[in-house]
Design brief:
Elements (H helix, E strand, L loop, with lengths): L10 E5 L4 H14 L6 H13 L4 E3 L2 E5 L10 E11 L9 E8 L3 H15 L4 H7 L3 H8 L9
Parallel strand pairs: 1-4, 3-5
Antiparallel strand pairs: 2-3, 4-5
Helix pairs in contact: 1-2
Length: about 150
C-alpha cells in the first residue's frame, strides 16, 4: 500500500503553534485544504489525544495526528505541518514535536497500511530533520515517498 497523495495545499512549512492543540488544528486545516476531511475532523483528532494521551508522538519530534474513520473524512489523505518552534504533546520521551503528520482514512485497513508505510519512512532517524528542513512540498514528498496530488484527486 502506498501513502496517499500529498497535494501542495496539504503542506504547511515553518508554521507557528502555541501548543499541541493548535498544532493539530493546523494539521486538520491542511487536511481540509487538501480535500481529505472537513473542518470538524481536527476536533476529533484533538479529542483522541485528550482521551488516549500523547501516544500519537511516535518518534522523537514526530506526531501522527488522526482519528477513526467518520463522516468528516471525505477521502484518504495526508497532511504535513512543520513547526518553527517545537511544541510539547506530553510524551515522556519524544517531545518536543517539530513535525505533525495529519492522516485521514475511510476504513481501518487504510489506517494500518498507512501506519506501516510511515513507519518505514521514519525508521530512518534523519527523516524528521529532513522534513523539518524541507523548503517546499516537493522536498517533503521526496522524504516521504508520497505522490503529488490535487484537491479532488
Amino acid at each position: 500500500m502506498a501513502l496517499p497523495a500529498l497535494p501542495d495545499s496539504a503542506v504547511m512549512l515553518g508554521a507557528e503553534a502555541p501548543d499541541w492543540r493548535a498544532a493539530v488544528r493546523l494539521a486538520g486545516r491542511a487536511l481540509t485544504r487538501g480535500g481529505a476531511a472537513s473542518s470538524e475532523y481536527a476536533d476529533r483528532m484533538i479529542a483522541v489525544i485528550e482521551e488516549f494521551g500523547a501516544y500519537v508522538v511516535i518518534a522523537p519530534g514526530l506526531a501522527l495526528a488522526h482519528a477513526r474513520p467518520g463522516p468528516d473524512v471525505r477521502r484518504e489523505g495526508m497532511a504535513v505541518v512543520t513547526l518553527a518552534t517545537p511544541v510539547a504533546f506530553g510524551h515522556p520521551h519524544h517531545d518536543p514535536v517539530r513535525v505533525v503528520l495529519g492522516v485521514a482514512v475511510s476504513n481501518a485497513e487504510e489506517h494500518v497500511g498507512f501506519i506501516a508505510e510511515l513507519a518505514n519512512v521514519f525508521n530512518d532517524p534523519r527523516a524528521v530533520s529532513r522534513v523539518t528542513a524541507a523548503r517546499d512540498a516537493d522536498e517533503v514528498r521526496a522524504v516521504l515517498g508520497a505522490r503529488a496530488g490535487e484537491v479532488g484527486a
